[in-house]
Structure to design on (386 residues):
């Protein structure tokens, strides 16, 4: 067993850390203030990421990516997690579900996405179908050789910039002993397709500038060539490609917690009350001790889950544990840091209130904490018949 990084892995960490500090941090205040990422800033981040050879680093070299392993990609995401989500969105990591593209879908979607020419967004969630993905009401019906989509999606991240969308819709229903079960198919939908509209979404307290949108489909006609994977095989492509994305949420949470922790540590050492640094008070110093212990634990859980994927070992439970622990750890660390800052923690003179707000969504998206606990407990109890 070896817990250190290889020289190459350390180089990845150093390169991305330097990028985040030089290219992301300087724009964060502007994004917080305006809720927007100026186009020229987005383009510049994208251009520099491509130059660095890190654009689409989660894709294999055979399609033009950097061919990083799951573990190496987790290290990249950990460093990116330190910076603003709205800005690091342009350090492009397209959805690796695009590897399911076949035939000329590769030229129209996969390769341009990897080259940074076209951006994607992934649409599963609906107003009445969040955790219960199979409850979706958005449908696609076969008409002649085409498909006709109706319904809507909401909370779709990055849809404001996306050139195309990977959309999951119901294409049928099976009657099972446990009740009706929807069949799901994934479609590739270009922005501007008649009958498809992208509308402004809700304002979130987390990750200002990282927008979510509403998608509406009103008799939106797609050719059969837009089906990604197999008809009714949406769950298969989802399971093959998407379950690893929960590691991203976990590892970004670790990165952000470490950045936040550095603020807590410095403030505990510098801020004086009753004639001494507040870090001398056990009420503060023990919080520091708990924070670093939890951050390290989350880091190890997360890297272990990524390593298991690289080894081809089962990792579903480990990924769920990493996601639930790292995101809840981030909530505790940002809250404790705010407490250590006292009243100043709530003021926007420091980024602490932002870390605290941003932490909230991590326990919700990509499967809530409750759903992760469900995955963990089912995997342990099902073999015992419970
Ligand atoms: C800012 C933001 C961006 C997002 N981006 C995207 C995106 O790009 N693409 C996309 O498809 N989706 C996206 N999502 C959707 C996200 O994945 C869902 O919000 C999430 O899956 C939860 O669904 P919900 O919000 O409808 O909550 P619900 O599913 O309605 O859950 C409400 C509560 O009930 C609990 N609950 C539900 N079922 C169970 C159960 N079986 N056992 C125990 N508790 C349960 C939940 O844990 C939660 O506490 C985004 C969400 C947000 C907030």
């Amino acid at each position: 067993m070896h817990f250190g990084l290889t020289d190459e892995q350390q180089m990845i960490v150093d390169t991305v850390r330097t990028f985040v500090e030089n290219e992301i941090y300087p724009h964060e205040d502007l994004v917080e203030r305006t809720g927007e990422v100026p186009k020229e800033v987005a383009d510049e981040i994208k251009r520099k990421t491509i130059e660095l050879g890190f654009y689409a680093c989660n894709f294999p070299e055979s399609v033009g990516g950097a061919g990083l392993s799951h573990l190496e990609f987790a290290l990249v995401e950990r460093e990116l997690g330190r910076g603003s989500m709205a800005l690091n969105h342009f350090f492009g990591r397209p959805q690796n579900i695009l590897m399911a593209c076949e035939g000329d879908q590769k030229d129209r979607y996969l390769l341009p996405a990897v080259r940074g020419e076209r951006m994607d967004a992934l649409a599963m969630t609906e107003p009445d179908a969040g955790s219960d993905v199979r409850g979706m009401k958005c449908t696609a019906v076969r008409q002649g050789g085409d498909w006709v989509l109706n319904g809507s999606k909401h909370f779709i991240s990055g849809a404001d910039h996306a050139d195309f969308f990977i959309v999951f819709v119901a294409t049928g229903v099976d009657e099972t002993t446990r009740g009706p079960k929807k069949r799901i198919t994934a479609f590739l939908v270009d922005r501007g397709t008649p009958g498809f509209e992208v509308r402004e979404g809700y304002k979130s307290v987390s990750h200002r500038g990282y927008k979510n949108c509403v998608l509406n489909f009103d008799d939106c006609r797609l050719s059969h060539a837009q089906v990604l994977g197999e008809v009714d095989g949406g769950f298969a492509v989802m399971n093959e490609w998407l379950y690893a994305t929960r590691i991203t949420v976990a590892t970004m949470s670790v990165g952000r917690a470490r950045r936040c922790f550095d603020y807590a540590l410095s403030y505990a050492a510098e801020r004086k009350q009753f004639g001494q640094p507040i870090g001398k008070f056990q009420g503060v110093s023990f919080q520091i001790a708990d924070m670093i212990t939890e951050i390290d634990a989350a880091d190890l859980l997360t890297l272990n889950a990524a390593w298991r994927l690289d080894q081809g070992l089962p990792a579903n439970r480990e990924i769920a544990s990493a996601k639930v622990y790292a995101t809840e750890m981030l909530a505790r660390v940002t809250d404790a840091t705010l407490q250590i800052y006292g009243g100043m923690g709530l003021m926007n003179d420091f980024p602490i209130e932002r870390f605290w707000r941003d932490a909230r969504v991590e326990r919700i998206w990509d499967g809530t904490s409750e759903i992760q606990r469900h995955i963990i407990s089912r995997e342990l109890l099902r073999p015992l018949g419970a």
